[in-house]
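pinging the channel bc i need a second pair of eyes. not urgent but kinda urgent?? the chain im working w is below, pasted from the shared doc
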Amino acid sequence: MVVDILTNRKLCFSNFSFEVQKDVDDHLTRLFWANDTSKANSKEFGDVLSFDVTYQTNKYSIVFVLFTGVDYHKRCVTFGVGLLAHETADAYVWLLEEFRKVFVKPPMMIITDQDSSMKKVVNFVFPESKHRLCMWHITQKLEEKVVFSRRGDSISISCSCMLFVQEGLLCRHMFFILSMKEYDEIPSNFILRRWGKYIITDGLLRKKYVYPHKGSKNECLIQDAYAILRLSINNITNNEDELAKYIKQFQEVDSGIPLCTSSRASSSRSVHIEKIIGAAVPDVINIHNPQGIRNKGWAIGKRIKSTRDKVIETSKKGSRLCILCHKPNHNARSCILRLKKSDLESEVTEG
């Protein structure tokens, strides 16, 4: 009866399309149809195609396949309908090929469920289209992989991929759960201490380890003062009120410090070098430099010269000189003296 109805529609409406297949016993095995409305929808909104399969919707247990899309108002529209007696790769190839014959222009993207055979069929019939998985199926399976729990302000997320347990990084599944729960920021319990910017205090990293020598502790005190200042500023860097209060207190302290002239300008060159190195030259040397050390990695013979070394060595060598004029960049055959001599000999012969 269904085939008769579709046949009558095709006779009445020239833009109506349908194809049918039967087995050797004349049993219906495959059916596809699309009307003029479906073709208009595909022409306007056919960039993305959703290819969905529904089971147990009729008493014959035949598979119902629906080709749908979304219009500009995010409403579902139908592109075509199919019925399959058997869910095989060959049946899906036939159905998609009939779909392509009717609509000609392939979609830019095809969305299906997570079926390996369907993925192969889509790539075979529509190699130029991108294949993506349905978000609904992804979210349904996500609950099996990710466990989310909340107690007050603290939350707990565990994922079967174990990326956070092994490397301390949030996986894409956990990010998706946080996005679904409308979290704008990553909870603090998921930011491990190892990823902190100031796990080593900034003052300690910037500190110049200049140790006193000759009984002077001035440089060390200066470095300690700088370190305390940087650490204090880092602690309140995001608090504008505290920064303003700290600056005011610092100005009050600075106003009470008497001015003093620096003695650095009168220091000798050796004193400056000692300050940079952090130690003075000892009067008596008790430990001398090591000598005559040959370890395992020590080269026995000459080092193999690279192409660059060979070119540099060649460029340093003097160029060969002409045996006639003793000048470089030419030989006796092209020497100007030989040319002049040959010209004179030719003039004498002609004379």
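so The longest helix spans residues 218-235. and The beta strands are 17-22, 28-34, 48-54, 63-70, 76-84, 109-112, 130-133, 146-151, 154-159. — does that match what u expected or am i reading it wrong
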